[in-house]
Backbone:
């Protein structure tokens, strides 16, 4: 669904889901936002692609939240098997964990559905300066670029005898030969890329020509205005002291 | 012809470097000419290109002394490592090549026309819809060269531009340099490939340790090609043929 949308639409949906997750205070309402984020990912066909990184990032934090708030929280407590949970703490952990899940799912879905090239064209067509376009798009694409580079460095270092498996201390020792070339090559690349962009008009002050700007359909605008209306309503409700 | 670059006694040091990368270098690149830079690794050829193109010390930092005049702002540079020269902002080769002209705010048709012309000249028109990130090193190098040519530079600076190319691709790229020069641009190319340099350069500067060791017509200053070595061993009189076509022409005489 979002793949075909104007690039601003997935970003607006992701931002809206983030803001809605923080507008609510009860676990039920926050996890309802998570359910919507899951629905958006599923209908966009990227649920499988976003679930794994979302879980990898969320699980350690959920475990920490459970310990901090659930086990160490104040009275009243409830026993679940051998463990004793703070009811208020568990609720707090559910709210914070839900917000984290909503943020991760929303932005991973946006990353998976927004084409950087289409986003560049959309921003160029709106007259956004190249500096801002480059800052946003290079931020969105930094993870896949670094992942590809890490794969090359791991391959190269393994060819030279580096073992990246084994015991935890051995894994820690293997980090140096991976991280140092990663940082040095990234720094070297920045120099040449800055030069390459400079000679190709990257620093030009005038308005760039958009070659193939994506269509901004009525449906896109309706979704974006709808998201904005929902967020405004949720925060009005929150500040009125009535939101769940 | 109009001098595009004039260096007189130029020295350049990178920030924190104990020794200058260039020392007392003089060089002139005129419109319509191809000038070559040669020398062993670390001799300062890449630095000379950055200085002649106006990129050092503006973008690299460091200290420049001596006289430098660059008579144009339309300077293009191609490095040996094409993957560092992608914008990362285009999903097709056409978009990548058109990036530069589009940055100048030219009309859409003019941008696409310049991009398609440059792609045809570099033999990459058939890659138009491909993702630049999925190309081979050789294809990518030609795409990057096309992207720079699409800007229609008055001064084109190339640092070992055929490092990623197969022999046929390298021949095609070097054959294009005199054509670019014939269109009125100045071309400054650094490469260890003396054979191809001898074919295209009007003037060659050989650097050693950041200084000009010798300069002149290619036949007078380049004598380190395999063909030249064989010719020397067989007692061939100077100037030595530097590549196979030159050796065959000499034999035919």
Residues:
């Amino acid at each position: 669904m979002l793949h075909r949308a104007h690039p601003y639409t997935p970003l607006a949906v992701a931002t809206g889901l983030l803001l809605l997750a923080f507008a609510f205070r009860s676990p039920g309402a926050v996890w309802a936002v998570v359910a919507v984020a899951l629905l958006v990912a599923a209908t966009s066909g990227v649920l499988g692609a976003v679930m794994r990184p979302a879980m990898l990032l969320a699980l350690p934090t959920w475990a920490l939240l459970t310990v901090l708030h659930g086990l160490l929280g104040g009275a009243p407590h409830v026993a679940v098997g051998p463990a004793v949970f703070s009811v208020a703490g568990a609720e707090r952990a559910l709210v914070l964990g839900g917000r984290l899940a909503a943020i991760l799912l929303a932005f991973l879905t946006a990353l998976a559905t927004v084409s950087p090239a289409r986003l560049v064209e959309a921003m160029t067509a709106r007259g956004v300066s190249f500096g801002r376009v480059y800052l946003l798009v290079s931020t969105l694409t930094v993870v896949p670029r670094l992942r590809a580079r890490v794969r090359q460095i791991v391959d190269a270092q393994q060819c030279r005898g580096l073992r990246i498996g084994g015991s935890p201390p051995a894994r820690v020792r293997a980090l140096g030969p991976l991280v140092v070339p990663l940082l040095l090559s990234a720094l070297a690349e920045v120099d040449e890329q800055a030069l390459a962009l400079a000679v190709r008009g990257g620093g030009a002050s005038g308005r760039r020509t958009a070659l193939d700007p994506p269509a901004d359909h009525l449906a896109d605008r309706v979704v974006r205005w709808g998201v904005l209306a929902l967020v405004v309503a949720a925060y009005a409700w929150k500040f009125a002291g009535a939101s769940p | 012809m109009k001098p595009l670059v004039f260096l007189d006694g130029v020295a350049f040091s990178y920030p924190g470097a104990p020794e200058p990368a260039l020392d007392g270098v003089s060089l002139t690149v005129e419109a319509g000419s191809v000038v070559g830079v040669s020398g062993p690794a670390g001799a300062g050829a890449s630095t000379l290109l950055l200085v002649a193109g106006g990129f050092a010390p503006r973008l690299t930092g460091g200290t420049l002394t001596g006289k430098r005049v660059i008579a144009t702002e339309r300077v293009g540079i191609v490095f040996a490592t094409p993957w560092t020269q992608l914008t990362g902002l285009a999903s097709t080769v056409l978009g990548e090549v058109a990036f530069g002209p589009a940055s100048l705010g030219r009309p859409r048709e003019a941008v696409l026309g310049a991009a398609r012309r440059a792609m045809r000249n570099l033999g990459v028109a058939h890659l138009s819809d491909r993702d630049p990130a999925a190309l081979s090193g050789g294809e990518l190098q030609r795409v990057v060269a096309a992207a720079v040519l699409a800007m229609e530079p008055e001064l084109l600076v190339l640092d070992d531009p055929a490092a990623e190319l197969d022999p046929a691709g390298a021949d095609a790229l070097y054959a294009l340099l005199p054509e670019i020069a014939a269109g009125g641009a100045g071309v400054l190319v650094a490469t260890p490939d003396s054979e191809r340099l001898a074919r295209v350069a009007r003037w060659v500067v050989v650097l050693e340790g950041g200084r000009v060791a010798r300069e002149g017509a290619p036949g007078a200053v380049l004598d380190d090609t395999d063909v030249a070595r064989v010719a020397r061993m067989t007692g061939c009189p100077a100037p030595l043929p530097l590549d196979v076509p030159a050796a065959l022409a000499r034999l035919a005489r």
User: Anything to note?
Assistant: Helices of chain A lie at 8-23, 27-43, 47-71, 87-113, 116-125, 130-159, 168-199, 218-239. The longest helix of chain A spans residues 168-199. Residues 128-199 of chain A form one domain. Strands of chain A lie at 77-80, 83-86.
